[in-house]
Every structure is written in structure tokens, then in C-alpha cells.
């Protein structure tokens, strides 16, 4: 470690010896400044390269003769402090108007050097203090002229001085200089600097500096900034106007839309408060008809019939501008022969055209951003009739499409416009159109797509490239024009899967779409149509056969599908009630017995008839096996009971095949209908037997599907019970001829039947 430190010390000493082989560097750039406020002379110099050893620097002065250079008077030296490159000589050691030689010496152990001598009188090197701007006023005769008044300092009040002034507005980047050749008299306390050409209603910043005289002394520092707002004046100049006419008004008036550019800053002379659009009446020339009084740069109003001129004025607080005359001509002149546009940079477009044959006063260029969205207004500008090119810079952005129209303005008409479109810069589209399958069959498929929205196109579409790939990763492609919207893929394999995507290209790049997967069919469209037609014909034939069979066998099918359900309430038995019973007020029991006896069959027989039943004639057997006794009838005995009438006494009333047999409904369940069995049976009951019986089924109700307890058979054993005939309204309808007791059946009480 000690060895390394010794080596560093040796290298440092060697380097120092190399630097110290020459004496100190020569001081240069010696200059002096006389400060009247401090009454001292300060001299400054450049010492040169560092010597790394102690060096003594001294500022020397002496007064010499003009011719032979002999030293007349040696002045006191001035030694600066260490590491300082300037030295100040106080007033008591100075002769202000006597010239002196001043130089700087540098001395060290290796030698001595000195700077060049500077010969001057202290007052020749004077630098005055910065002046102060007192006031700024505008001229009453010309508001564009300003007078700047500066105060002189007390120490320089007896001295003649020259002044410089500079100014700039808030919009300016550089200062404008005004040099004053006027030398104010000594003893004046102020100086005025006057200049013209200032704009009205504009904020200006002013600064002033001074010097003893040109070529003698130094310029003072600039004064502090003084800001001043110039007064308003009436606007000057005329407006740049463009118009559009609409002749579709219903009252034969012409709608005119006037557009104008804002005035230049130097012509406004203050803040513009509004614009006045008017015309003179045809009846009285002095009568003014105001169309618009607006703060906007557009006016749309109907022009009276016969009016040909419109006038526009701008006004502010100080007055109005001269009227701009507008003659809105129709578009009926000659068009331009050609026009083209190309980008100059990302935010400007250059438009060039060929001048038409006629004499053109001026050209109007109108452009707007092409977009599907609303809200982008058009911009316009005018060019004189002698030019054939223009630069568009207003509202221009890269990667956006602009439509440009150029109108030539003749002396008595407006020419037909020429149109073109341009981009300032292009890049790849943001999206590519989504593919849709239009048609497909066994060997080919047709795809289609829509256009890309203008905002996402970012350039002119040069072409579309379609790529498709099969399941074996075999890739094919085809290039189509930018105007194409569909493409037919040919020579495809049947029943295969293909992946298709579209690439959209511009001059700035390309973008791929999403992938569309398609599956080719096994058969062509015609084959599918023929097969479908054959199947349809076969199905139609089978359907026709089924309908014919159903039509011919409709009765049988009706019984199987929709069996008839008899409805006792709608039977003809209800019409058999005797007249007296119909007229009588039969009271039926309202509240049945809690546990009624359900009877499925009632048979009224005499003992002799039960033992020797009468023979049944052919055709007297009811539906379901109900036995009917044609030769028996019923009559009341003395105890108001039914007794059987012997064969041949009274005719019986039996339902025919066309009527519903009530006995069938009462005796047997329909189609195996389950009738619930009572929990117990009670004999000699005085309660109604049928009061709790289920009502007749609806015509559409099939009781086959109703479950329940086992039902009674025809040979069920019935207990002997006693019921009231009043509980059987349908039995009351049985008309028993020849029996007065039955005809007065409202007087009997009960009917007694035996167990079978």
C-alpha cells in the first residue's frame, strides 16, 4: 500500500515539473469601467492557464507623454486579492480627464509576464446607471405614435447622453430597436423618445439604455420593463368573404350563407364586438335592412327578391370598419382543368391546379375532414387570381382524409368546383373488415365484407388480400382490388373445413381481420334441392293416405279417440215428468245424512214376479245388460208404497235406442268406472240413497282414468231400505197411467224395496 502512494507522489511531481518549465501566462483582455455613482475605476482581465505555484499579480498605472512615451508620473499600483481577476482604484487616486497607461503583471519563481497596455482617461470608460422610464403617452393626433419619457440620474445630470429604446408586443418573440440621435441638453431632468407605427389595443413592453456618447464609454444596463396598452381605434380594412346560395326557398327568396375570415390583428385596432350584415332597400336607397348582427363569422338569412348586393361591417368600441361589398353570384362559370393535393408535412397539404382560360379574380379553397360522425366543420381560404398553388394548414391532422374543393371566382360568376382527396400521412388501418359467408356448396364458397370506416382507414386502401387454409395447413391467397366487396373461393374439397381471413393494405401498412371458419357441404345446392323435393313428395303422399283412411273410418276412430259420455241432465227422460209434478213445488232435502248409503241398483218387484220373471223380448235388453220388464208398471198402494202391476195392466215407458237410458247410468259404471264403496251399509235408513251421488259426467270427461275403490257388480246384495220418493226427482217423472195415487205422487212418502 505504501509503495502505491509513493508512486502517485512521483507521478504528481513529474507532471508539475512539466507544467513549470515556462513562466506565468500572459494576462489578456484588459478592460476598465468608470462608475460615477461609486466614483471608482474597476479594471478586469483574463489571467490565462493555472500555474499551480504562487503568482503575484499587480495592476500598474502611469501617466506618459504623447510623443516620446516618457514616464511623467507613476501611479500607485493595485494588488487584487487572491483568486480575483479584477482590481478597483478609488476616486482619490484618479484624474478623470487625464489619460493613463494601465497594464497587468504576473510574476512567480520561474519568471515574469505582463499584459498589453491600455491607454485611456477614466471618463472615457464611464458606464452610466440604467435609466428609468417615467411615463408613456400616445399622440392625440395619431394614436399609433407613442412618446416615452425617461428620468436622468442626478450624478449624470450635467452630462450629455444618448439613448436607445427597444420594445415588443406580447405576441412578438424578438425586440425591435429604436436608436435616438437626439442628445438632450445638459441640465435637463428628462428625455423623450417618440416613435410611430404601434398597433391599437395592443400591450407593448419597453426598455431604455444610455451612453455618454457614441464610441466613448460603455452602454448602461437596460432599464426595468415598462408595459403600455395602446388605445383603441376604429377597425380598418375589408373582410375576406365567401358565400353559398340556396334557391329552394318556397317563397321565391334566395337563402344566402355568408362566411368571412377574422380581421388581421393590425386592422382590428381593438377587440371586435360584432359584425353587421345589411343591404339597402330597393324602394328607398337610404333605408337599411339588417340581415344579421352577430359575433360569429357566419350569417345565414333570406335575401329579398331583386336584391343583388350585401354589405358587411366590423365594429368595436371606437367605431366601424369600412363596408365590405359582396355580390353573391351563382355557380355557373367554367371549372378548372385539373387539381391535385399532396402532403408537405404532417399538418399541412399543398394544393396545385391549372388556371382556366377565363380571367380569374381570385380562388376559394374549401376543405373538410371526411367522417361518418357529425361535428367537423369546413375551413376555407382565398388566393389571388395570379397564383396556381396554395398551402392548407388550418385544421389539418395526420392519418385523416380531407376533401378539398377549389372554386374559381370570375367577374360575374363562380366557376364549377374541382374536388380531390388527400392524406398528410398514411399508416396501417386500425381494423380490417369482418368476413361474412354469403353462399357455400361442395366445391366453392363466396365471402363478402364491408368497407372500413373512414376514421379507422388511415390511408387509401390499395388492395385486399384473401388467405384461406385447409385442415392440412395448405395456405392459398388471392389479391383483389380496393373496390371489391366479395370473392369466390373455388376448387375446394367437399365436406372440408377452411379458415379464411382478409388483409387490408394501405401505403402505410397492412392489417389482418379475424378468422372465418367455413365447412363445405357434401352435396351441391341442386342435389340438396332434388333430395329435399323427393322427401317432401313422399311425406306428402303418406300424409294424404292417412287423411283418406281417417276420413273413411271416422266413426270408428271417433269412438276410440273421443267415446260418447251420456249426460242424464240432457236426456229425454226429463221431459216425462207429469204436468202436475211440474206445476207442483217439490221440496228436496237440503242437508243430506252425514253417511249416506250409495246404491248402484234399485229393483222394484213383487214376490211373485221376482220368483217368476217375465220373459224378456228381443231388443228389450238395455245397454250394459240392464234388464227391462216391459209388462210391469208401478202404482201406489194404500200405505203410499209402490206395488208391482201385473202383466198387461198398464203400458210401460221404455227408452228407445235413440234416447239415453237412465237406468244404465244408475245401474252400471261407465266403461269400468270405479264407484267408491261406502265404509258401511245401514238398513232401514230414512236418509236419501242418492243425495250424495256424483253428478253426471261432462260430455268431454272420460271417467276411465279416474281411480277409486272396487265397484259393485250387478249381483251385489242390497239391504232393504226405506227411502222417500221425493228424493228421486227423475223417478217422479215416470208417468204411471191409470193410477191416481201415482199422479198425486207429491203425497206419498217412501218406497220400500227388498234385498235381491
UniProtKB/TrEMBL annotation:
The keyword ATP-binding does not apply. Keywords: Disulfide bond, Glycoprotein, Membrane, Receptor, Repeat, Signal, Transmembrane, Transmembrane helix. InterPro entries: FN3_dom (IPR003961), FN3_sf (IPR036116), Hematopoietin_rcpt_Gp130_CS (IPR003529), Ig-like_fold (IPR013783), Type1_Cytokine_Rcpt_Type2 (IPR052672). PROSITE patterns: FN3 (PS50853), HEMATOPO_REC_L_F2 (PS01353). Residues 1-19 form the signal peptide. GO terms for molecular function: cytokine receptor activity. It is a single-pass type I membrane protein. Residues 235-334, 335-430, 431-524 form the Fibronectin type-III domain. Gene3D superfamilies: Immunoglobulins (2.60.40.10). It is found in: Membrane. One of its GO terms (cellular component) is plasma membrane. SMART domains: FN3. Pfam families: fn3. The chain crosses the membrane at residues 528-551. Its main location: membrane. Belongs to the type I cytokine receptor family. Type 2 subfamily. This is Granulocyte colony-stimulating factor receptor isoform X2. It comes from Geotrypetes seraphini (Gaboon caecilian).
